[in-house]
Amino acid sequence: EAQVTQNPRYLITVTGKKLTVTCSQNMNHEYMSWYRQDPGLGLRQIYYSMNVEVTDKGDVPEGYKVSRKEKRNFPLILESPSPNQTSLYFCASGFPLHFGNGTRLTVT
Amino acid sequence: GESVGLHLPTLSVQEGDNSIINCAYSNSASDYFIWYKQESGKGPQFIIDIRSNMDKRQGQRVTVLLNKTVKHLSLQIAATQPGDSAVYFCAEMVRGNQFYFGTGTSLTVIP
């Protein structure tokens, strides 16, 4: 089944503790991207990748890192999470975008 | 940054009626538009898309209309069903790689 898989689905952490949210797709898509969804703001693009080893900032990249070492994987890294990064995160791939089921992150 | 807005945050329709959800965008250079449906606890699900060289596209029970003159996009759902209840939002693609999303319209179908 064609899908975008994110892990974990839920994550509670403390300020400053590094974390990684994984994203994997099995559709051989070159394009992958990360979004955060906050009430009243809609989805906002954090980072995107046009292909392996090619990544670029989206609208709200501050506090996040990504890597694209393989075509299928596009992890989102928060080196030092802060409470304002509490949000619902989505990974997506391809055109049109195929979304994962989301990761709800809480930073206390 | 770009601005994508939806005209109504909520919409209630009777089962069997047609629904129209609207979206306004700001960037004249946007060349690709997508409508998504999001159910509670799930990721956005693709409904239909349209490129800027078209003004109308039809799918199964859905139609997207694009008016580039006034930068307006609409989604029409025919014979709305209870399973159509969800949040709907539009997205525009700019420069071939960046996406901007509207805030969403919550559609409630009344049986």
Structural notes for this entry:
With 108 residues, chain A is an all-beta fold. Helices cover 0% and strands 51% of the residues of chain A. Chain A has no helices and eleven strands. Chain A is globular. In chain B, the strands form two sheets. In chain B, strands 2, 4, 5, 9, 10 and 11 form a six-stranded mixed β-sheet that branches. Helix content of chain B is 0%, strand content 57%. Chain B contains no helices and eleven strands. Chain B is mainly β and 111 residues long. In chain B, a hairpin with a 3-residue loop joins β6 (56-58) and β7 (62-67). Chain B starts with a strand and ends with a strand. Chain B has strands spanning 4-6, 10-14, 19-25, 32-38, 45-51, 56-58, 62-67, 72-77, 86-94, 98-101, 105-110. The A-B interface holds A 4, 31, 33, 35, 40-45, 48, 50, 56, 58-59, 90, 92, 95-102 and B 1, 4, 32, 34, 36, 41-46, 49, 89, 91, 93, 97-104.
Oligomeric category = heterodimer
Low confidence ranges of chain B: none
Number of strands of chain A: 11
Q: Could you give a short account of the major beta sheet of chain A?
A: 7 strands, mixed
* Average residue-wise pLDDT of chain A: 96
Shape of chain A: globular
Treating each run of at least 4 consecutive H or I residues as one helix, how many helices of chain B? 0
Distance between the termini of chain B: 40 Å
Query: How can the largest sheet of chain B be summarized?
Result: 6 strands, mixed
Largest interface: A-B, 25 and 23 residues
* Overall shape of chain B: globular
Q: How much is the radius of gyration of chain B in Å?
A: 13 Å
Strand content of chain B: over 45%
* Category from helices, strands and their pairing of chain A: mainly beta
Task: Supply the number of helical segments of chain A.
Answer: 0
Proportion of residues in β-strands of chain A: over 45%
User: Helicity range of the residues of chain B?
Assistant: under 10%
Total number of beta strands of chain B: 11
Rg of chain A, Å, rounded: 13 Å
Query: Ends of chain A: how far apart?
Result: 36 Å
